[in-house]
Design brief:
The complex is a heterodimer of chains A (325) and B (347). Chain A has 325 residues and is an alpha/beta fold. Chain A has a single domain, classed as Thiamin diphosphate (ThDP)-binding fold, Pyr/PP domains (Rossmann fold), CATH 3.40.50.970. Chain A is 47% helix and 10% strand. Chain A is built from 12 helices and 7 strands. In chain A, the strands form 2 sheets. A 5-stranded parallel β-sheet of chain A has the order 1-2-3-7-6, sandwiched between helices. A two-stranded antiparallel ribbon of chain A has the order 4-5. In chain A, 51% of the residues are buried. Chain B has 2 domains: 180 residues, Rossmann fold (3-Layer(aba) Sandwich); 128 residues, Rossmann fold (3-Layer(aba) Sandwich), CATH 3.40.50. Chain B has 13 helices and 14 strands. In chain B, the strands form 3 sheets. Chain B has a 7-stranded mixed β-sheet, with helices on both faces. A 5-stranded mixed β-sheet of chain B has the order 9-11-10-13-14, sandwiched between helices. A two-stranded antiparallel sheet of chain B has the order 1-8. Chain B is 40% helix and 19% strand. Chain B is of the alpha/beta class and 347 residues long. At the A-B interface, helix 5 and helix 6 of A face helix 4, helix 5 and helix 6 of B.
């Protein structure tokens, strides 16, 4: 990987981290309604996926994917602040505040929206992929899921149908070790998800989700494989989420310390860049720049108007109006 | 002249009449098949998908012949994966395809309920109009043939409380064709209910392409004393009961809803305002279903016009038993509607 590419990914990872940390702060202040699930600690996985997916591809983000949503919006739409505004429930959000954190979508940048019933879009992704295949388009349809989703029936229905129809689907399974509180090895027949996937007979691979070089390289290979018409690809990113559960931290102290202090993907990328001669000041400048950008987005979200009340009854149907009170 | 020779003219005399009958009277299933064929010819972006729908032509033959005409890409068999079937339709619809799914029996929709309720029905709303879900879910519903608890249910009530879904429920072959073509044209997701007991019913179905508007009820029989509101199989039963009532001097108007959600309240309320008496007939269990909704709406909005309370005809509050005599106990029939008309007419 060229140093300029790695530096670009380092910027992207900082964008995600600054976004999530800024969001956590605003959530605690009460400026962000609903629930908050951050992707802190999983930045390398998201940056690698966002890098290789084009605006003409489709990705279904999971509930920890504010970062990839913001990156796609920033890169392809030039308006990443609209993801922030959506999380604040504001009129300027990508869904005018009607979707929020769990349903932010913008087809113009390839974001097909989260479905907060985890794993539901394991089924939906099939249709996007099938349409691309029927139309002869070299597009990738990507479902980003957590390890918990492996328990859903739709997970298995999807892998089976993608296999028999040879669909252009990229399954990006972010195995962060826990489904809320359930350890992956207790919830599933195998703690290594790829072991369960192999029977479906298409390409699958487990990788270090905190190593941006490996993640970027492997995602690139998988995307090329799919674009060439060679069928689906399953990736399992081994990673770890920084956020505990709603009640606080429940994982062993040594585990938390290990992942935050020794396996931080941004720190690891920074060390690689430093080893290639990038000056500490230049790395520091990236962090400053991204933090500054995110503060602008937060200010935009805070200053944006609330949605027009008429939006509450709009777009239930295409062909009918719904009564107001 | 042999016996065979003398028989020949008789056969030729009979044959055209039979052929003429076959042309004129088309079965419900054939009308649906016609609609799918015409729609596939019209919409390049349409495909049909489901279990055993390709080579086999579906459990009831509704997709028969489509595979030969349109090929396996557009007539797609699936494994037993109802959630993936509807998910596939949803995703394809998001990018502008026009899929039509067959869920073999409506009871099996429980397997894809999440897809319909949380994904398909909400997509246009929660993503602020950026995605549409122009898909049709055809499914065989209803009882009356000894199908038992998992092949006989009327599922409209499962979806009545779900904004965003359109529920279409034809009562005859002519409407079935026109409503299916309109459903495929629609940019909203449609749950298209096909009552199994109607599959063999026949009518003079126009062979050409036509649509029957969604969201519009029709007055299947005009009358002045009692309004019966019904859908699907309850409509022919209501017409039978209306005929009986006419013999007793009671003039019955039958409103066929045709679309159950969003339903045509204006036609229902106008009829009840005229007659002053209402019977609502519904095959599903009484509590929380279509009958409950119609009864409440009529009572609220026609209070001043009503001469007596709304009378409800429903399925009993039970699962559907396998034994046909037991099923007869549970499901309403024309006699139940006739009795309800008599009750309503007493006021």
């Amino acid at each position: 990987m060229e140093t300029s590419t790695l530096l670009g990914l380092y910027r992207d990872m900082w964008l995600i981290r600054a976004f999530e940390q800024g969001l956590e702060r605003e959530f605690e202040k009460g400026n962000v309604p609903g629930m908050l699930h951050t992707g802190l600690g999983q930045e390398a996985t998201q940056a690698a996926l966002a890098w290789h997916l084009k605006s003409t591809d489709a990705f279904f983000p999971d509930h920890r994917c504010h970062g990839i949503n913001a990156l796609a919006q920033h890169r392809h739409g030039g308006n990443g602040e609209r993801i922030m505004a959506e999380l604040f429930g504001k009129a300027t959000g990508v869904c005018s505040g009607k979707g929020g954190s769990l349903h932010s979508a913008d087809p113009a940048v390839g974001n097909f929206g989260d479905n907060a019933v985890e794993g539901s879009y394991m089924a939906t992704v099939l249709g996007v992929a099938l349409a691309a295949k029927m139309r002869g388009q070299p597009n990738v349809a990507c479902a980003i899921i957590g390890d918990g989703t492996v328990g859903r029936g739709e997970f298995h229905e999807s892998l089976n149908m993608a296999a028999i129809w040879d669909l252009p689907v990229l399954y990006a399974c972010v195995n962060n070790g826990y489904a809320i509180s359930m350890p992956v090895g207790e919830g599933h027949a195998s703690a290594d998800i790829v072991d369960m996937v192999q029977g479906y007979g298409f390409e699958s691979r487990q990788l270090d989700g905190n190593d941006i070089v490996e993640a970027w390289t492997v995602v690139g290979e998988a995307v090329e494989h799919i674009r060439s018409g060679a069928g689906p690809y399953f990736l399992e990113f081994k990673t770890w989420r920084w956020q505990g559960i709603f009640a606080g931290e429940f994982r062993p102290e040594a585990e938390v310390k290990y992942w935050k202090e020794e396996r931080d993907p941004i720190m690891l990328a920074g060390e690689t860049l430093a080893g290639r001669g990038v000056a500490p000041n230049d790395l520091e400048a990236v962090e400053q720049e991204m933090t500054g950008l995110i503060e602008e987005w937060i200010a935009f979200a805070l200053e944006s108007p609330e949605p027009d009340p008429a939006k509450a009854t709009a777009d239930v149907y295409v062909g009918w109006e719904v009564d107001s009170r | 002249m042999t016996a065979a020779d003398t028989a020949t003219p008789k056969r030729t005399a009979r044959t055209p009449r039979k052929a003429r009958d076959r042309v004129r009277k088309v079965a419900f299933t054939r009308a649906l098949n016609d609609a799918l064929d015409l729609a596939m010819a019209k919409h390049d972006e349409m495909f049909v998908i489901g279990e055993d729908i390709a080579e086999m032509g579906g459990d009831f033959g509704v997709t028969k012949g489509l595979l030969a005409k349109y090929g396996p890409e557009r007539v797609r068999d699936t494994p037993l994966s109802e959630a993936a079937i509807i998910g596939t339709c949803a995703g394809a619809a998001m990018v502008g395809m026009r899929p039509v799914a067959e869920i073999m029996f409506a009871d099996f929709i429980a397997e894809c309920y999440d897809q319909v309720v949380n994904n398909v029905a909400k997509m246009h709303y929660m993503f602020d109009g950026q995605f549409k879900a122009p898909l049709v879910i055809r499914t065989a519903c209803g009882g009356g043939f000894g199908g038992g608890p998992h092949h006989s249910q009327s599922v409209e009530g499962w979806f009545l409380n779900v904004p965003g879904i359109v529920i279409v429920a034809p009562s005859n072959p002519i409407d079935a064709k026109g409503l299916l073509l309109a459903s495929i044209d629609s940019d909203d997701p449609v749950l298209f209910l096909e009552h199994k007991a109607l599959y063999r019913s026949r009518a003079e179905v126009p062979p050409e392409y036509y649509t029957t508007p969604l969201g519009q009820a029709t007055v299947a029989r005009e009358g002045s004393d009692v309004t019966v509101v019904a859908a699907m199989r309850m409509v022919p039963m209501a017409l039978e009961a209306a005929e009986q009532a006419a013999g007793s001097g009671v003039s019955v108007e039958v409103v066929d809803l045709r679309t159950i959600r969003p339903y045509d309240a204006a036609t229902v309320l106008a009829s009840v305002a005229k007659t002053g008496r209402a019977v609502v007939a519904n095959e599903a269990p009484r509590i929380g279903g279509l009958g409950a909704e119609l009864s409440a709406r009529i009572s609220e909005e026609c209070f001043a016009d009503l001469k007596g309370p709304v009378v409800r005809v429903d399925g009993l509050d039970t699962p559907i038993p396998f034994s046909v005599p037991l099923e007869d106990v549970v499901l309403p029939d024309a006699a139940d509607i006739a009795a309800a008309i008599t009750t309503a007419a007493q006021y």
